[in-house]
Amino acid sequence: MSTLPACPQCQSTYTYEDGSQLVCPECGHEWSAQAEANVEAARVVRDAVGNVLQDGDTVTLVKDLKVKGSSLVVKVGTKVKNIRLVEADHDIDCKIDGIGAMGLKSEFVKKV
User: Fold this and answer.
1) Do 24 and 10 meet the contact criterion of CB atoms below 8 Å apart?
2) Shortest CA distance to 59 belongs to which of 87, 81, 91?
3) Which tens digit of pLDDT belongs to each residue from 11-26?
4) Cβ neighbours around 51 below 10 Å, total
5) CA-closest candidate to residue 47, choices 97, 112, 111
6) What's the predicted TM-score (pTM) here?
7) CB atoms within 10 A of CB 84
């Protein structure tokens, strides 16, 4: 059983294939399966040493990072579990114990 991507408009998980198109039965949106494959292939996030990162990975920090708007510092070697990759000025959304939700750049982490 192949896993099809969620609808880009309404995020429905009930998408299905209709020939070379992907269709969402909830909102009626149609998009090309080929375009979806190209987008996924083009977006590769790598850590500080070149390992490919994916959603749900565990990483450690390779540099002390100051927390904006606070006097806190996240120390080198801090383990961050269950990262989420995003497209923004930072590559990673995560929660760090004792700090809270943060955005990190992939160049400051190493995959465990």
Assistant:
1) yes
2) 81
3) 888 899 888 889 999 9
4) 16
5) 111
6) 0.62
7) 12
pLDDT at 39: 57
pLDDT at 42: 61
pLDDT at 1: 44
Label each residue of the chain as H, E or C.
CCCCCCCCCCCCCCCEEECCEEECCCCCCEEEHHHHHHHHHHCCEECCCCCEECCCCCEEECCCEECCCCCCEECCCCEECCCEECCCCCCEEEEECCCEEEEECHHHEEEC
Cβ contact 91:85 at 8 Å: yes
Record the tokens describing residue 102, joined without a space: 């943060």
